[in-house]
Design brief:
about 500 residues; alpha/beta; Aldehyde Dehydrogenase, Chain A, domain 1; Aldehyde Dehydrogenase, Chain A, domain 2; 15 helices; binds NADP nicotinamide-adenine-dinucleotide phosphate
């Protein structure tokens, strides 16, 4: 059934004209159709107000969507056309994102609570991701290897088919773009399942994709709950790859499914990243870097620097100044340009963060600042939580071991490099780390010794789409981004070209 495009009459906010125009609909088989799953109400985490109602996809629709995506992929020229022709369409999508930057940033702020400053940067990075993969696919090189016999070997790339892209709620447009762009560049179809709490930006992105020259049906958006449609998607026989970003337990479940079906999967999972301040660090730089590393995005970041290790010689002075600066941060709605720390994505998530802090207290931790819902009545209807700094716990405490995914920092002093490396690596995660020191040799040594897929030295939480991103241990499997990330969305095929006119010398005729 084709659905008439209309905006929600129940919107209670005048700025909501910026919302996706498609309501009660999911994108399936190149059409907007009525979602037959549960009605989900998206609320603004800054105010608790209704933003939009979404009719989610049912399990049956998810199954049908993948069948249709597969048919669209088989029948379209996308999988066989020249890479530079695909690149043109990716550039078009990038242009559409740029043209709608303010609107997309606004939608993401309404849905996630992030500050507009941050969502503008995320939308800009999504456009750049499409451009990067346009360039990457246009300049992708197969290999021709040195001959080892009377044949020449050549490696080529072929699309996989239907890629399932499953994304979390914390930075949806960036996660969507990092999967959709390389998947399309490599000639695949993509079925995107955004997190239940944050479907709006994916739907708005889908609206833009439909304005490009991408053949119909190659991108599908399935808003819906992971527990209802997740397994349907990951177990569908026509899904050829699962690209997942989310929590470790969901990732492990998906890895089991992928192993069962022997299909490739990329898992970007959680973290509990150490940030290290050595005794010779530039303190001003380190203070700002630590603050940004944990409290930007209200700590809802897989790479948040949530374990702080400070050399014991400057521990007290450093932590006191950190607390002073943290209590001075502005908490408020993401739409206010003065806001440093916005609300958490959902009241349920805020309550989970609060429960972690209560457990930290029960473990014997001292809450140096924050540790509560703000008292300001103007913030009472939102899902705010004060930026929180805790000390007095060891690295083996649950608070220092488990991912809280909120604005909560645990501070731990260290005595020397051995002590530091042992504590920093005493975690199931291995996503990121930060090192603050002007000493190149120490930084290099520590970067090599700390088990993390990304190490920032005298900076933190900076990203380049051209640099591969990966996590060790419970932080993930496979890699994203960069040229290597593009190859993850292809089958690599080896061709052997015989170069001799002689018959093969084998058997009694050879
Ligand atoms: P999550 O609960 O694992 O959910 C991630 C996605 O998986 C959502 O779309 C979710 O849908 C879906 N899902 C749930 N159950 C599923 C199933 N059985 N099959 C298939 N999909 C299923 O994680 P989250 O709470 O949204 O996100 C926070 C986590 O993501 C944190 O651990 C964070 O560290 C991690 N993360 C990692 C990176 C990275 O690059 N390493 C980046 C960002 C976030 P529903 O929302 O409907 O449940």
């Amino acid at each position: 059934m084709t659905v008439t495009l209309q905006t929600s009459s129940r919107n209670s906010h005048s700025s909501f004209s910026a919302l996706p125009q498609v309501r009660n609909a999911i994108r399936l088989g190149g059409e907007w159709v009525h979602g037959e799953g549960k009605l989900y109400t998206v609320t603004n985490p800054a105010t608790g107000e209704l933003v939009q109602e979404i009719n989610q996809a049912s399990a049956e629709q998810a199954k049908q969507a993948i069948d249709l995506a597969y048919t669209a992929w088989r029948e379209s020229e996308w999988r066989t056309c020249y890479p530079h022709d695909r690149a043109l369409v990716l550039h078009q999508i990038a242009g559409l994102i740029d043209d709608n930057l303010e609107r997309l940033a606004w939608i993401q702020t309404l849905n996630t609570g992030k500050t507009l400053k941050e969502t503008r940067a995320l939308v800009g990075s999504a456009a750049k991701t499409f451009r990067y993969y346009a360039a990457a696919v246009e300049t992708q090189e197969g290999t021709l290897t040195t001959q080892r016999g009377p044949w020449q070997t050549q490696t080529t790339f072929e699309p996989l088919g239907v890629v399932a892209a499953i994304t979390p709620w914390n930075s949806p447009i960036a996660s969507d773009a990092q999967k959709i762009a390389p998947a399309l560049a490599a000639g695949n179809a993509v079925v995107v399942k955004p997190a239940e709490w944050t479907p709006l930006i994916s739907m708005a992105l889908m609206e833009l994709v439909t304005q490009s020259d991408l053949p119909d049906g190659l991108v599908t958006i399935l808003p819906g709950k992971g527990s209802v449609i997740g397994d349907v998607i990951t177990s569908h026989p026509k899904v050829s790859k699962i690209a997942f970003t989310g929590g470790t337990s969901t990732g492990r479940r998906i890895a089991h499914e992928a192993a069962e079906r022997l299909i490739p999967t990329t898992l970007e999972l959680g973290g509990k990243s150490p940030t290290v301040v050595l005794e010779d660090a530039n303190l001003e730089q380190a203070l700002q870097g630590v603050l940004y590393g944990i409290f930007s995005s209200s700590g809802q970041s897989c790479i948040a620097g949530s374990r702080l290790f400070v050399h014991q010689s400057l521990y007290r002075e450093f932590v006191e100044e950190l607390v002073r600066r943290t209590t001075a941060l502005n908490i408020g709605p993401g739409t206010d340009p003065d806001t440093d720390v916005g609300p958490l994505v959902h009241t349920r998530h805020r309550d989970s963060v609060a429960a972690y802090v209560e457990r930290a207290r029960a473990e014997g931790g001292t809450v140096l600042c924050g540790g509560r819902v703000p008292a300001d009545p103007a913030l009472a209807a939102g899902s705010y939580y004060e930026p929180t700094i805790i000390e007095g716990l060891t690295n083996s405490s649950l608070t220092a071991q488990e991912e809280i995914f909120g604005p909560v920092l645990v501070c731990i002093p260290f005595a020397d490099e051995e002590d530091l490396v042992e504590q920093a690596n005493d975690t199931v995660f291995g996503l990121a780390a930060g090192i603050w020191t002007p000493n190149f040799f120490r930084a290099q040594r520590l970067a090599e010794r700390i088990d993390a897929g990304t190490v920032w030295i005298n900076t933190y939480k900076q990203f380049s789409i051209s640099t591969p991103f990966t996590g060790f241990g419970d932080s993930g499997l496979g890699l994203d981004k960069g040229r290597a990330g593009l190859a993850e969305y292809s089958k690599r095929k080896s061709l052997y070209w015989g170069t001799s006119e002689e018959p093969m010398s084998w058997g009694k005729h050879g």
